[in-house]
Structure prediction request, 604 residues.
Amino acid sequence: MRGQHFFFILTVLFLGTLLTTSIWYTSNDSHLEPHRLPALKKTEKRAPSVSSDNCNDCSHVEPDKLPPQKKTEKKAPSVSSDNCNGCSKVINKVLEHYSQTWTKQEENYLKYRSQLHTRCRGSDKAILTQANTPVGSKIVYDGERKTIREVTPELFRTFVKESPFSNKTWNTCAVVGNGGILTNSNCGNTIDSTQFVIRCNLPPLENEFKAHVGSKTNIVTANPTIFINNHVEPHRLPAPKKTEKRAPSVSSDSCNDCSHVEPDKLPQKKTEEKAPSVSSDNCKGCSKVINKVLEHYSETWTKQEENYLKYRSQLHTRCRGSDRAILTQANTLVGSKIVYDGEKKKVYEVTPELFRTFVKVSPFSNKTWNTCAVVGNGGILTNSNCGNTIDSTQFVIRCNLPPLENEFKAHVGSKTDIVTANPSSYMKKYGALSGQRRPFVDNLQIYGNSMMLLPAFCVVKSTPLSLQALYTVEDFEIPIQPVLLNPEYVQSLTDLWRSQGLKEIRLSTGFIMVSLALEICTNVHLYGFWPFSNHPHGFQPLTHHYYDDEKATYFHAMPSEFKLLLQLHSQGVLRLHLGQCGEQSLHVVPWKTQKYSAFLVSSG
Prediction:
């Protein structure tokens, strides 16, 4: 079977490295000083694409100058004691077990490989990664079992994101020690012809050595003894190729239930943000509910740090959106069962093909953004002049593939880092992508290389529609990055907000995004969140979306999600913008707490 010897070779490497490290610990303790790990390059630290080789105890087989030997054939003859001062006994014993004619025994190989994979999991655990060793973990030294080191954020930053060996198998691997037996061996071309080459302890490969040991290298070990004795400095792993599927670097915005808050036509009058009390003349009795909203909406808004941290802590502890909001290869393995959040009795098994579409790791892990704009599509954005204000934030999330060009840009902006895409948003307009897909692709170009969030596992019928959108993006090779919403995260959010009094059967995608923003963003601003049929300033009638003529549906009742958002605004947790932004951009007002300083972002 091709490539099945990989895990055995990997184990040989680590056995050798362990022995070398143990020897070094006992002989060089007095020379070891802790030092700060090298800083990362600005590019995201990722494990290079490598094959999985290994090598033996390199500390015993790496002379700098290879000893002069006569050119020998591979088959070793029986030796006498005349040539090696009595060593013939042990060497002849070796030769008894060494067969020149070698045949792979598949059954034996699979037995060892199975044991290594089951008990050791080298493919996932051989190296420290951000996926297997989080901040705060205790690392126990394998050579000094009573000594531990806690993983600090600085140390964690140096770990690669995930193991380069996960779900990979290579066909041919060459593990190259540094023994003198390689002198005049002419093995260089043979070694370099293998798919992956691992070498030990930074050996010399140039000039007279190349013909005998080759030069191709995919992994090279570097025990500290090499640095101490030869003053060699380690180098960082190379950045991944651009073609590797990666989650884009994004900030953490969100939006409310966009289907309820995105009317098309804009109110005619230019209004100030402060909402006056309104009469019932313009909205046929809707003034009661809108005036109730205005009672809770404060023009002078101040962030309440204690309230914000309380909600953020609950979201991080109970929901873990930074790691679980989207399906990744780190949190959802092949063979996992995905439970639909809208149909609890339905499950979907993760196949290798579906697994391939997942991003490697969450783009939100260990990241925090200062300012986030979550943009709904409500008609309240018409003539709002909020475009520049929205675009001035670090990260912008939008809902359901809204139009951003031409007459809309000045009022809603164009910057996009995440855009949600419920199947309903393209099912009718683009025929569920079952026919011509070019118009859909052309319209996605305005979002650049943002993330397109697909709720593929809300209900069963959403799965093929979401995957069709994902495959369309792949087929046309456009820069937008499709990602899949994790239904397990949605369920945890539902449970949390129910405990806060929200009784929705299922949270809207937009409210889910608001929750994510509260967890990973310091200052969250909401725009276009107004579900009512009339504007709070002047009571002009509004359409449902800023880009169409559909009428708004809420007249005499306050939607429960909007009510909760209004509560969070009043408590200083997030900022809900209901008025005109004008030409001014965000004003940054410094504020401080006992633990740290930051900036409070407000609009004039």
User: Anything to note?
Assistant: The chain has a mean pLDDT of 76. The chain has two domains: 6-127+163-230, 258-603.
